[in-house]
Amino acid sequence: MTTGTTPQSSSSAPLLDLQALVVAVRRRRRLWCSAALLGLLLGVAVAVLLPPQPSAVTKVLVAHQEDQPNDPGTLIRTDVALLHTTRIAGAALKSLGSPEKPEDFMQDYGGIGLTNNLLQITATGDSDAEAVARAKALADAFVTDHVRRMQQAADAESKSLLDQRDRLQAELVQVNKAIGDGAPQSGPKAAANLESLFARRAELTSRIADFNQRAAEARVGAPRLTAGTQVVDAPHPVRHSLPKTAATNAAIGLVLGLVLGLAVAAVGTVVADRPVLRREIAANLGASVVAELPRRSPRLWRRRRIRAARERLIASLARTVRGSAEPVSLLELGCARSASVIALDLARALAAEGPVVVVDGLPGSQLAGRRRKPQDPTVVGCEQATALSPGERRLGVGSVAPGTAWTDLQYLGTRTVLVVRAGHGSAAWLHTVARQLADQRIGVIGVVLIDPDPRDRTDGTLWNGLHTALRGHGGLPARQNGGGTSHAVQAVGEGRHRTERPPLWAARVPDSDQEAR
Protein backbone atom coordinates (compact mmCIF):
# COMPACT_ATOMS: atom_id res chain seq x y z
CA MET A 1 0.00 0.00 0.00
CA THR A 2 1.29 3.42 -0.88
CA THR A 3 1.45 6.14 1.69
CA GLY A 4 -0.88 9.10 1.83
CA THR A 5 -0.42 12.00 -0.53
CA THR A 6 1.95 14.67 0.67
CA PRO A 7 3.28 17.83 -0.94
CA GLN A 8 6.61 16.09 -1.53
CA SER A 9 5.04 13.09 -3.26
CA SER A 10 2.69 15.21 -5.37
CA SER A 11 5.53 17.39 -6.57
CA SER A 12 7.43 14.32 -7.77
CA ALA A 13 4.43 12.70 -9.49
CA PRO A 14 5.21 11.33 -12.97
CA LEU A 15 3.89 13.01 -16.07
CA LEU A 16 1.98 9.84 -17.03
CA ASP A 17 0.87 7.48 -14.28
CA LEU A 18 0.95 4.04 -15.88
CA GLN A 19 -0.97 2.45 -13.02
CA ALA A 20 -3.80 4.94 -13.38
CA LEU A 21 -3.73 4.48 -17.16
CA VAL A 22 -3.99 0.69 -16.88
CA VAL A 23 -6.83 0.94 -14.37
CA ALA A 24 -8.72 3.48 -16.49
CA VAL A 25 -8.32 1.38 -19.64
CA ARG A 26 -9.46 -1.73 -17.77
CA ARG A 27 -12.55 0.12 -16.54
CA ARG A 28 -13.40 0.93 -20.15
CA ARG A 29 -13.32 -2.72 -21.10
CA ARG A 30 -16.80 -2.42 -22.61
CA LEU A 31 -15.35 -0.12 -25.25
CA TRP A 32 -12.42 -2.26 -26.35
CA CYS A 33 -14.32 -5.52 -25.92
CA SER A 34 -17.05 -4.11 -28.16
CA ALA A 35 -14.43 -3.00 -30.69
CA ALA A 36 -12.86 -6.47 -30.67
CA LEU A 37 -16.27 -8.13 -31.10
CA LEU A 38 -17.14 -5.73 -33.90
CA GLY A 39 -13.86 -6.55 -35.65
CA LEU A 40 -14.54 -10.26 -35.31
CA LEU A 41 -18.05 -9.90 -36.76
CA LEU A 42 -16.78 -7.74 -39.61
CA GLY A 43 -14.13 -10.34 -40.42
CA VAL A 44 -16.73 -13.10 -40.59
CA ALA A 45 -19.07 -10.88 -42.62
CA VAL A 46 -16.33 -10.10 -45.14
CA ALA A 47 -15.59 -13.81 -45.56
CA VAL A 48 -19.27 -14.66 -46.05
CA LEU A 49 -20.47 -11.67 -48.07
CA LEU A 50 -17.30 -11.07 -50.09
CA PRO A 51 -15.96 -14.52 -51.00
CA PRO A 52 -12.64 -14.62 -52.88
CA GLN A 53 -12.83 -14.52 -56.67
CA PRO A 54 -12.23 -17.84 -58.51
CA SER A 55 -8.52 -18.20 -59.20
CA ALA A 56 -6.08 -20.65 -60.77
CA VAL A 57 -2.38 -21.20 -60.27
CA THR A 58 0.46 -22.62 -62.36
CA LYS A 59 4.23 -22.93 -61.97
CA VAL A 60 6.90 -22.32 -64.62
CA LEU A 61 10.53 -23.46 -64.50
CA VAL A 62 12.65 -20.65 -65.93
CA ALA A 63 16.22 -21.28 -67.17
CA HIS A 64 18.58 -18.31 -67.33
CA GLN A 65 21.82 -18.01 -69.24
CA GLU A 66 23.34 -16.07 -66.35
CA ASP A 67 22.31 -18.53 -63.61
CA GLN A 68 24.72 -18.53 -60.67
CA PRO A 69 24.60 -20.58 -57.45
CA ASN A 70 24.85 -17.42 -55.35
CA ASP A 71 22.19 -15.47 -57.24
CA PRO A 72 20.09 -13.51 -54.64
CA GLY A 73 16.93 -13.80 -56.76
CA THR A 74 17.51 -10.86 -59.07
CA LEU A 75 16.79 -12.87 -62.23
CA ILE A 76 13.49 -14.32 -61.02
CA ARG A 77 12.39 -10.88 -59.82
CA THR A 78 13.10 -9.62 -63.32
CA ASP A 79 10.91 -12.38 -64.70
CA VAL A 80 8.09 -11.36 -62.31
CA ALA A 81 8.40 -7.78 -63.53
CA LEU A 82 8.37 -8.91 -67.14
CA LEU A 83 5.21 -10.91 -66.46
CA HIS A 84 3.46 -7.63 -65.60
CA THR A 85 4.01 -6.05 -69.00
CA THR A 86 1.56 -5.23 -71.72
CA ARG A 87 3.48 -7.49 -74.13
CA ILE A 88 2.85 -10.62 -72.03
CA ALA A 89 -0.71 -9.53 -71.18
CA GLY A 90 -1.47 -8.73 -74.83
CA ALA A 91 -0.09 -12.09 -76.04
CA ALA A 92 -2.20 -13.96 -73.44
CA LEU A 93 -5.34 -12.02 -74.40
CA LYS A 94 -4.66 -12.69 -78.07
CA SER A 95 -4.47 -16.43 -77.42
CA LEU A 96 -7.70 -16.20 -75.42
CA GLY A 97 -9.44 -14.14 -78.08
CA SER A 98 -10.47 -11.57 -75.48
CA PRO A 99 -11.07 -7.90 -76.36
CA GLU A 100 -10.02 -6.80 -72.87
CA LYS A 101 -7.30 -4.20 -72.61
CA PRO A 102 -3.88 -5.43 -71.44
CA GLU A 103 -3.75 -2.69 -68.80
CA ASP A 104 -7.00 -3.96 -67.26
CA PHE A 105 -5.99 -7.59 -67.58
CA MET A 106 -2.78 -6.99 -65.62
CA GLN A 107 -4.92 -6.25 -62.53
CA ASP A 108 -6.32 -9.81 -62.62
CA TYR A 109 -3.12 -11.82 -62.35
CA GLY A 110 0.14 -11.84 -60.44
CA GLY A 111 3.42 -13.66 -60.15
CA ILE A 112 5.84 -14.55 -57.42
CA GLY A 113 9.26 -16.16 -57.44
CA LEU A 114 9.28 -19.28 -55.30
CA THR A 115 12.98 -20.01 -55.99
CA ASN A 116 15.66 -18.61 -58.27
CA ASN A 117 14.21 -20.56 -61.19
CA LEU A 118 10.59 -21.31 -60.24
CA LEU A 119 7.87 -18.78 -61.06
CA GLN A 120 4.31 -19.11 -59.78
CA ILE A 121 1.53 -17.42 -61.77
CA THR A 122 -1.91 -16.79 -60.26
CA ALA A 123 -4.85 -15.58 -62.36
CA THR A 124 -8.45 -14.78 -61.46
CA GLY A 125 -11.63 -14.98 -63.49
CA ASP A 126 -15.40 -15.09 -63.34
CA SER A 127 -15.29 -18.89 -63.02
CA ASP A 128 -12.77 -21.61 -62.33
CA ALA A 129 -12.62 -22.55 -66.03
CA GLU A 130 -11.90 -18.97 -67.05
CA ALA A 131 -9.25 -18.63 -64.35
CA VAL A 132 -7.53 -21.85 -65.52
CA ALA A 133 -7.63 -20.68 -69.14
CA ARG A 134 -6.12 -17.34 -68.19
CA ALA A 135 -3.35 -18.97 -66.14
CA LYS A 136 -2.51 -21.32 -69.04
CA ALA A 137 -2.46 -18.46 -71.53
CA LEU A 138 -0.18 -16.42 -69.31
CA ALA A 139 2.19 -19.33 -68.73
CA ASP A 140 2.39 -20.09 -72.46
CA ALA A 141 2.86 -16.43 -73.33
CA PHE A 142 5.62 -16.06 -70.75
CA VAL A 143 7.43 -19.23 -71.90
CA THR A 144 7.17 -18.17 -75.56
CA ASP A 145 8.45 -14.69 -74.78
CA HIS A 146 11.27 -16.03 -72.61
CA VAL A 147 12.34 -18.57 -75.27
CA ARG A 148 12.25 -15.89 -77.97
CA ARG A 149 14.37 -13.57 -75.90
CA MET A 150 16.89 -16.33 -75.16
CA GLN A 151 17.03 -17.29 -78.86
CA GLN A 152 17.44 -13.68 -79.90
CA ALA A 153 20.23 -13.22 -77.40
CA ALA A 154 21.97 -16.40 -78.62
CA ASP A 155 21.58 -15.36 -82.26
CA ALA A 156 22.91 -11.90 -81.52
CA GLU A 157 25.91 -13.31 -79.71
CA SER A 158 26.62 -15.84 -82.49
CA LYS A 159 26.34 -13.16 -85.18
CA SER A 160 28.72 -10.92 -83.26
CA LEU A 161 31.28 -13.75 -82.98
CA LEU A 162 30.95 -14.64 -86.64
CA ASP A 163 31.42 -11.00 -87.62
CA GLN A 164 34.61 -10.95 -85.61
CA ARG A 165 35.70 -14.16 -87.33
CA ASP A 166 35.02 -12.72 -90.79
CA ARG A 167 37.05 -9.62 -90.00
CA LEU A 168 39.97 -11.77 -88.86
CA GLN A 169 39.68 -13.96 -91.99
CA ALA A 170 39.89 -10.89 -94.19
CA GLU A 171 42.99 -9.80 -92.32
CA LEU A 172 44.39 -13.35 -92.72
CA VAL A 173 43.96 -13.11 -96.48
CA GLN A 174 45.98 -9.90 -96.52
CA VAL A 175 48.72 -11.54 -94.42
CA ASN A 176 48.89 -14.55 -96.74
CA LYS A 177 49.14 -12.23 -99.74
CA ALA A 178 51.96 -10.29 -98.05
CA ILE A 179 53.80 -13.54 -97.37
CA GLY A 180 53.45 -14.58 -101.00
CA ASP A 181 54.76 -11.20 -102.26
CA GLY A 182 57.76 -11.17 -99.89
CA ALA A 183 58.94 -14.74 -100.47
CA PRO A 184 61.35 -13.96 -103.45
CA GLN A 185 63.11 -11.20 -101.54
CA SER A 186 66.33 -11.88 -99.66
CA GLY A 187 68.33 -10.18 -96.98
CA PRO A 188 68.13 -9.86 -93.21
CA LYS A 189 65.36 -7.24 -93.26
CA ALA A 190 63.17 -9.23 -95.60
CA ALA A 191 63.66 -12.34 -93.44
CA ALA A 192 62.59 -10.43 -90.31
CA ASN A 193 59.45 -9.11 -92.03
CA LEU A 194 58.60 -12.56 -93.33
CA GLU A 195 58.99 -14.06 -89.85
CA SER A 196 56.62 -11.48 -88.29
CA LEU A 197 54.02 -12.18 -91.03
CA PHE A 198 54.16 -15.90 -90.28
CA ALA A 199 53.66 -15.17 -86.55
CA ARG A 200 50.69 -12.89 -87.34
CA ARG A 201 49.17 -15.58 -89.58
CA ALA A 202 49.44 -18.15 -86.80
CA GLU A 203 47.77 -15.79 -84.32
CA LEU A 204 44.93 -14.98 -86.73
CA THR A 205 44.38 -18.63 -87.47
CA SER A 206 44.10 -19.39 -83.74
CA ARG A 207 41.67 -16.53 -83.08
CA ILE A 208 39.50 -17.51 -86.06
CA ALA A 209 39.23 -21.04 -84.68
CA ASP A 210 38.33 -19.65 -81.26
CA PHE A 211 35.56 -17.47 -82.68
CA ASN A 212 34.19 -20.42 -84.63
CA GLN A 213 34.06 -22.51 -81.46
CA ARG A 214 32.38 -19.74 -79.40
CA ALA A 215 29.79 -19.14 -82.12
CA ALA A 216 29.00 -22.84 -82.17
CA GLU A 217 28.66 -22.92 -78.38
CA ALA A 218 26.32 -19.92 -78.47
CA ARG A 219 24.10 -21.67 -80.98
CA VAL A 220 24.16 -24.89 -78.97
CA GLY A 221 23.31 -23.14 -75.64
CA ALA A 222 20.04 -21.63 -76.88
CA PRO A 223 18.22 -24.99 -77.30
CA ARG A 224 19.34 -26.02 -73.82
CA LEU A 225 17.81 -22.88 -72.29
CA THR A 226 14.73 -23.28 -74.44
CA ALA A 227 14.20 -26.86 -73.28
CA GLY A 228 14.82 -25.88 -69.65
CA THR A 229 12.03 -23.26 -69.64
CA GLN A 230 8.71 -25.07 -69.34
CA VAL A 231 5.47 -25.36 -67.36
CA VAL A 232 6.12 -27.82 -64.56
CA ASP A 233 2.74 -27.55 -62.81
CA ALA A 234 -0.36 -27.47 -65.01
CA PRO A 235 -2.88 -24.72 -64.28
CA HIS A 236 -5.50 -25.76 -61.74
CA PRO A 237 -8.15 -23.91 -59.72
CA VAL A 238 -7.44 -22.87 -56.14
CA ARG A 239 -9.93 -24.26 -53.67
CA HIS A 240 -11.08 -21.86 -50.92
CA SER A 241 -12.46 -23.11 -47.60
CA LEU A 242 -15.17 -20.81 -46.26
CA PRO A 243 -14.75 -21.91 -42.60
CA LYS A 244 -10.99 -21.47 -42.79
CA THR A 245 -11.29 -18.09 -44.48
CA ALA A 246 -13.93 -16.96 -41.99
CA ALA A 247 -11.79 -18.07 -39.05
CA THR A 248 -8.73 -16.29 -40.44
CA ASN A 249 -10.65 -13.08 -41.13
CA ALA A 250 -12.32 -13.27 -37.72
CA ALA A 251 -8.98 -13.63 -35.96
CA ILE A 252 -7.51 -10.70 -37.91
CA GLY A 253 -10.59 -8.56 -37.22
CA LEU A 254 -10.53 -9.49 -33.54
CA VAL A 255 -6.90 -8.47 -33.14
CA LEU A 256 -7.31 -5.25 -35.12
CA GLY A 257 -10.48 -4.30 -33.24
CA LEU A 258 -8.88 -5.05 -29.89
CA VAL A 259 -5.79 -2.98 -30.71
CA LEU A 260 -7.92 -0.11 -32.01
CA GLY A 261 -10.22 -0.25 -28.98
CA LEU A 262 -7.31 -0.26 -26.54
CA ALA A 263 -5.70 2.65 -28.37
CA VAL A 264 -8.92 4.68 -28.32
CA ALA A 265 -9.48 3.87 -24.64
CA ALA A 266 -5.91 4.86 -23.73
CA VAL A 267 -6.01 8.10 -25.70
CA GLY A 268 -9.44 8.96 -24.34
CA THR A 269 -8.26 8.30 -20.80
CA VAL A 270 -5.23 10.56 -21.16
CA VAL A 271 -7.23 13.34 -22.82
CA ALA A 272 -10.18 13.18 -20.41
CA ASP A 273 -7.93 13.01 -17.30
CA ARG A 274 -10.58 11.43 -15.08
CA PRO A 275 -9.07 10.10 -11.84
CA VAL A 276 -10.03 6.55 -10.92
CA LEU A 277 -7.56 5.61 -8.17
CA ARG A 278 -8.30 6.36 -4.54
CA ARG A 279 -5.13 8.33 -4.08
CA GLU A 280 -5.89 10.53 -7.12
CA ILE A 281 -9.47 11.29 -6.07
CA ALA A 282 -8.39 12.04 -2.50
CA ALA A 283 -5.57 14.29 -3.68
CA ASN A 284 -7.77 16.24 -6.11
CA LEU A 285 -10.64 16.69 -3.65
CA GLY A 286 -8.36 17.30 -0.68
CA ALA A 287 -10.31 14.79 1.45
CA SER A 288 -9.79 11.18 2.45
CA VAL A 289 -11.74 8.29 0.95
CA VAL A 290 -13.60 6.91 3.94
CA ALA A 291 -15.84 4.30 2.31
CA GLU A 292 -16.48 2.42 -0.92
CA LEU A 293 -19.59 0.95 -2.49
CA PRO A 294 -20.27 -0.73 -5.82
CA ARG A 295 -22.39 1.13 -8.33
CA ARG A 296 -24.18 -1.84 -9.82
CA SER A 297 -26.08 -4.61 -8.09
CA PRO A 298 -23.60 -7.14 -6.72
CA ARG A 299 -23.57 -10.76 -7.75
CA LEU A 300 -25.58 -13.26 -5.75
CA TRP A 301 -22.61 -14.65 -3.83
CA ARG A 302 -21.49 -11.15 -2.83
CA ARG A 303 -24.76 -9.54 -1.83
CA ARG A 304 -24.46 -10.51 1.83
CA ARG A 305 -20.99 -8.99 2.08
CA ILE A 306 -22.04 -5.80 0.27
CA ARG A 307 -25.15 -5.51 2.46
CA ALA A 308 -23.00 -5.76 5.58
CA ALA A 309 -20.60 -3.16 4.21
CA ARG A 310 -23.48 -0.79 3.45
CA GLU A 311 -24.81 -1.22 6.97
CA ARG A 312 -21.39 -0.37 8.40
CA LEU A 313 -21.26 2.73 6.21
CA ILE A 314 -24.71 3.88 7.36
CA ALA A 315 -23.77 3.26 11.01
CA SER A 316 -20.58 5.30 10.60
CA LEU A 317 -22.43 8.15 8.91
CA ALA A 318 -25.11 8.08 11.62
CA ARG A 319 -22.46 8.40 14.36
CA THR A 320 -20.91 11.33 12.51
CA VAL A 321 -24.25 13.11 12.07
CA ARG A 322 -25.16 12.58 15.76
CA GLY A 323 -21.82 13.96 16.89
CA SER A 324 -22.01 17.03 14.67
CA ALA A 325 -23.41 20.28 16.02
CA GLU A 326 -23.95 21.51 12.47
CA PRO A 327 -26.16 20.11 9.72
CA VAL A 328 -24.58 17.50 7.48
CA SER A 329 -25.26 17.00 3.78
CA LEU A 330 -24.48 14.41 1.13
CA LEU A 331 -23.24 15.91 -2.15
CA GLU A 332 -23.03 13.61 -5.15
CA LEU A 333 -20.94 13.69 -8.30
CA GLY A 334 -22.04 11.26 -11.00
CA CYS A 335 -24.05 8.96 -8.69
CA ALA A 336 -27.34 10.65 -7.78
CA ARG A 337 -29.13 7.34 -7.30
CA SER A 338 -26.51 5.96 -4.94
CA ALA A 339 -26.49 9.20 -2.94
CA SER A 340 -30.30 9.10 -2.69
CA VAL A 341 -30.27 5.52 -1.41
CA ILE A 342 -27.56 6.34 1.17
CA ALA A 343 -29.49 9.44 2.31
CA LEU A 344 -32.74 7.47 2.80
CA ASP A 345 -30.96 4.67 4.67
CA LEU A 346 -29.18 7.22 6.86
CA ALA A 347 -32.44 9.04 7.57
CA ARG A 348 -34.11 5.79 8.60
CA ALA A 349 -31.20 5.06 10.96
CA LEU A 350 -31.51 8.51 12.54
CA ALA A 351 -35.31 8.39 12.79
CA ALA A 352 -35.14 6.30 15.98
CA GLU A 353 -33.86 9.35 17.89
CA GLY A 354 -36.30 11.88 16.51
CA PRO A 355 -37.90 13.21 13.41
CA VAL A 356 -35.59 13.51 10.41
CA VAL A 357 -36.30 15.48 7.27
CA VAL A 358 -34.36 14.94 4.06
CA VAL A 359 -33.92 18.15 2.09
CA ASP A 360 -33.75 17.23 -1.58
CA GLY A 361 -31.41 19.55 -3.46
CA LEU A 362 -30.78 17.18 -6.35
CA PRO A 363 -31.57 18.44 -9.86
CA GLY A 364 -35.18 17.64 -10.71
CA SER A 365 -36.16 16.88 -7.08
CA GLN A 366 -35.63 13.17 -7.53
CA LEU A 367 -36.37 12.37 -3.88
CA ALA A 368 -39.13 14.90 -3.22
CA GLY A 369 -41.06 13.80 -6.29
CA ARG A 370 -40.99 10.07 -5.57
CA ARG A 371 -43.90 8.17 -4.03
CA ARG A 372 -43.41 8.00 -0.28
CA LYS A 373 -43.60 4.61 1.46
CA PRO A 374 -44.78 4.20 5.07
CA GLN A 375 -41.29 3.55 6.42
CA ASP A 376 -39.64 6.32 4.42
CA PRO A 377 -38.61 9.57 6.12
CA THR A 378 -40.09 12.90 5.17
CA VAL A 379 -38.56 14.34 2.02
CA VAL A 380 -39.04 18.00 1.09
CA GLY A 381 -37.67 20.22 -1.60
CA CYS A 382 -35.46 23.22 -1.02
CA GLU A 383 -38.47 25.54 -1.35
CA GLN A 384 -40.25 23.83 1.57
CA ALA A 385 -37.21 23.72 3.82
CA THR A 386 -37.93 27.19 5.24
CA ALA A 387 -41.11 25.89 6.88
CA LEU A 388 -39.30 23.25 8.95
CA SER A 389 -39.21 23.61 12.71
CA PRO A 390 -35.82 24.13 14.39
CA GLY A 391 -36.19 20.93 16.39
CA GLU A 392 -36.25 18.67 13.37
CA ARG A 393 -32.98 17.12 12.27
CA ARG A 394 -32.22 17.90 8.67
CA LEU A 395 -30.16 15.89 6.20
CA GLY A 396 -29.42 17.62 2.92
CA VAL A 397 -28.82 15.85 -0.38
CA GLY A 398 -27.38 17.83 -3.25
CA SER A 399 -25.10 17.71 -6.25
CA VAL A 400 -21.74 19.21 -7.15
CA ALA A 401 -22.07 18.38 -10.85
CA PRO A 402 -21.49 21.11 -13.46
CA GLY A 403 -24.21 23.74 -13.21
CA THR A 404 -24.43 23.61 -9.41
CA ALA A 405 -25.55 26.75 -7.58
CA TRP A 406 -22.62 26.82 -5.17
CA THR A 407 -24.08 29.44 -2.82
CA ASP A 408 -27.10 27.20 -2.10
CA LEU A 409 -25.00 24.28 -0.85
CA GLN A 410 -24.40 25.84 2.59
CA TYR A 411 -28.17 25.72 3.26
CA LEU A 412 -28.10 21.95 2.76
CA GLY A 413 -25.39 21.55 5.40
CA THR A 414 -22.23 23.25 6.59
CA ARG A 415 -20.44 19.92 6.73
CA THR A 416 -20.69 17.42 3.93
CA VAL A 417 -19.81 13.93 2.80
CA LEU A 418 -18.97 13.75 -0.90
CA VAL A 419 -20.40 10.76 -2.75
CA VAL A 420 -18.25 10.51 -5.87
CA ARG A 421 -18.31 8.01 -8.69
CA ALA A 422 -14.80 6.93 -9.65
CA GLY A 423 -13.78 8.06 -13.13
CA HIS A 424 -16.76 10.40 -13.57
CA GLY A 425 -15.31 13.85 -12.94
CA SER A 426 -12.13 15.24 -14.43
CA ALA A 427 -9.22 16.32 -12.29
CA ALA A 428 -9.97 19.96 -13.10
CA TRP A 429 -13.58 19.60 -11.95
CA LEU A 430 -12.58 17.86 -8.72
CA HIS A 431 -10.27 20.80 -8.02
CA THR A 432 -13.18 23.14 -8.73
CA VAL A 433 -15.41 21.27 -6.29
CA ALA A 434 -12.77 21.43 -3.53
CA ARG A 435 -12.16 25.14 -4.14
CA GLN A 436 -15.87 26.06 -4.22
CA LEU A 437 -16.62 24.12 -1.03
CA ALA A 438 -13.70 25.84 0.68
CA ASP A 439 -14.95 29.25 -0.49
CA GLN A 440 -18.38 28.44 0.97
CA ARG A 441 -16.62 27.29 4.15
CA ILE A 442 -18.24 23.86 3.94
CA GLY A 443 -16.09 21.26 5.66
CA VAL A 444 -15.61 17.98 3.86
CA ILE A 445 -15.80 15.08 6.31
CA GLY A 446 -14.72 12.50 3.76
CA VAL A 447 -15.41 10.90 0.39
CA VAL A 448 -17.60 7.87 -0.25
CA LEU A 449 -16.28 6.31 -3.45
CA ILE A 450 -18.83 4.68 -5.72
CA ASP A 451 -17.84 2.05 -8.28
CA PRO A 452 -14.15 1.76 -7.27
CA ASP A 453 -11.74 -0.42 -9.17
CA PRO A 454 -11.62 -3.84 -7.46
CA ARG A 455 -7.86 -4.11 -8.02
CA ASP A 456 -7.02 -0.66 -6.74
CA ARG A 457 -4.57 -0.98 -3.85
CA THR A 458 -3.66 2.69 -3.49
CA ASP A 459 -4.24 4.56 -0.24
CA GLY A 460 -6.97 7.18 -0.27
CA THR A 461 -6.11 8.59 3.16
CA LEU A 462 -4.78 12.14 3.40
CA TRP A 463 -3.07 12.68 6.72
CA ASN A 464 -3.29 16.41 6.11
CA GLY A 465 -6.69 16.11 4.49
CA LEU A 466 -8.51 18.71 6.59
CA HIS A 467 -5.82 21.27 6.02
CA THR A 468 -5.96 20.66 2.30
CA ALA A 469 -9.73 20.64 2.07
CA LEU A 470 -10.11 23.98 3.82
CA ARG A 471 -7.24 25.61 1.92
CA GLY A 472 -5.16 26.33 5.00
CA HIS A 473 -7.90 26.98 7.53
CA GLY A 474 -7.33 25.07 10.72
CA GLY A 475 -11.01 24.67 11.41
CA LEU A 476 -14.48 25.98 10.71
CA PRO A 477 -15.72 29.13 12.43
CA ALA A 478 -18.64 28.50 14.74
CA ARG A 479 -22.05 28.82 13.10
CA GLN A 480 -25.49 29.40 14.53
CA ASN A 481 -28.67 27.88 13.32
CA GLY A 482 -30.95 30.86 13.36
CA GLY A 483 -34.05 28.81 12.56
CA GLY A 484 -34.91 27.01 9.40
CA THR A 485 -32.33 27.45 6.70
CA SER A 486 -30.74 30.79 7.73
CA HIS A 487 -27.23 30.48 9.10
CA ALA A 488 -24.95 33.24 10.39
CA VAL A 489 -21.27 33.12 11.09
CA GLN A 490 -20.35 34.17 14.62
CA ALA A 491 -17.77 36.89 14.91
CA VAL A 492 -14.39 35.60 15.95
CA GLY A 493 -11.26 37.45 16.96
CA GLU A 494 -8.81 38.26 14.23
CA GLY A 495 -6.33 35.44 13.73
CA ARG A 496 -8.30 33.07 16.01
CA HIS A 497 -9.77 29.81 14.69
CA ARG A 498 -11.64 27.00 16.36
CA THR A 499 -9.45 24.21 17.55
CA GLU A 500 -12.30 21.75 17.13
CA ARG A 501 -11.86 19.59 14.04
CA PRO A 502 -14.38 17.35 12.36
CA PRO A 503 -13.52 13.71 13.00
CA LEU A 504 -11.53 11.93 10.30
CA TRP A 505 -13.00 8.45 10.40
CA ALA A 506 -11.81 5.74 8.09
CA ALA A 507 -14.43 3.06 7.64
CA ARG A 508 -13.60 1.73 4.20
CA VAL A 509 -16.14 -0.52 2.53
CA PRO A 510 -14.46 -3.03 0.21
CA ASP A 511 -15.82 -3.89 -3.19
CA SER A 512 -13.71 -7.03 -3.51
CA ASP A 513 -12.19 -9.69 -1.32
CA GLN A 514 -9.82 -7.23 0.32
CA GLU A 515 -10.34 -6.63 4.02
CA ALA A 516 -11.95 -3.43 5.26
CA ARG A 517 -9.30 -1.00 6.37
From TrEMBL:
Compartments, as annotated in UniProt: Cell membrane
Region (Disordered), start-end ranges: 493-517
Pfam families membership: Wzz
Taxonomy, superkingdom: Bacteria
Coiled coil: 151-214
Bilayer-crossing regions: 31-50, 250-272
The keyword Aminoacyl-tRNA synthetase appears for this protein: no
Keywords in alphabetical order: Cell membrane, Coiled coil, Membrane, Transmembrane, Transmembrane helix
Residue intervals of the Polysaccharide chain length determinant N-terminal domain: 16-95
Membrane disposition: Multi-pass membrane protein
Signal peptide as annotated in the record: none
Main localization (coarse): membrane
The family this protein is said to belong to: Belongs to the CpsC/CapA family.
Protein name: Chain length determinant protein
Species, as recorded: Streptomyces cyanogenus
